[in-house]
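Encode chain A's predicted structure.
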Amino acid sequence: MLTQEILSTFKKHSDLVSYLEEHQHENPIFKSALEKYEYEQELLPLQAELVEFQRWVQKENKKIAIIFEGRDASGKGGTIKRFKEHLNPRAMRIVALNKPTEVEKNQWYFNRYIKELPNAGEIVFFDRSWYNRAVVEPVMGFCTKQQYNRFMIQVPEFENMLYESGTTLIKFWFSVSKDEQQRRFEKRLNNPLKKWKFSPVDEKGQELWDVFTTYKNQMFSRTHNSFSPWVIIKSNDKQRARLESIKYVLSLFDYDNKGKNAQNILPDPNIVQRYFRNTIQLDQ
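Encoded structure for chain A:
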């Protein structure tokens, strides 16, 4: 028990940390607080690196598009939040499109995404992307077989055009196990502040898990290439997934003052892996 009397003996911040380390086996709250503290201690320097990275993107007129894909409750939104937390909002955007309008349904599928692509000097985070048509839409019956097939043919060509026009495209897939997804769904339903995050589509995702896996694997095998590879983030541990995905992005670029704030910006290969056919994923 952390009493007022014990607290009064602490002279500095490190005294509290030392106490938690020494007594973490006695109280799960102590252990949880310590893990949160260690996570924040690693996150803040990485976010400072992101600020340096963004300045370089602005100065060099780079165009950076980062796609966050994965099953529902895989940790995409929370990771985006940590990416953008301290960035200049004038040089970054989050794109999370609603279902297409009647007008958009009759346009070329990529139309509504093209206008959201980064301008020079800008970073854009896509909370889901055109890859809805590769997995979610065919699984849920939101597109025809013909629309799906056309998309799968066109998307590598589309991304090659982005590459040739100077847009850097980073494609993340957040991989979460079925049991962990179910646990997160239940947690959402029991939290009055997060109930809005749960939808009938989420529930269907558990029922159609294996169908989802089939389409996901087809997407990887047909859209993974050298100029826009798929990067798998094992996200059963949300905090680790956030840290390692930030490290992955930072590791790709030779920006000014790299490593000034965080000494270790190399991602953990146990958490972050480029897709290949034998890659072990949590959401198989």
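The mean pLDDT is 91.
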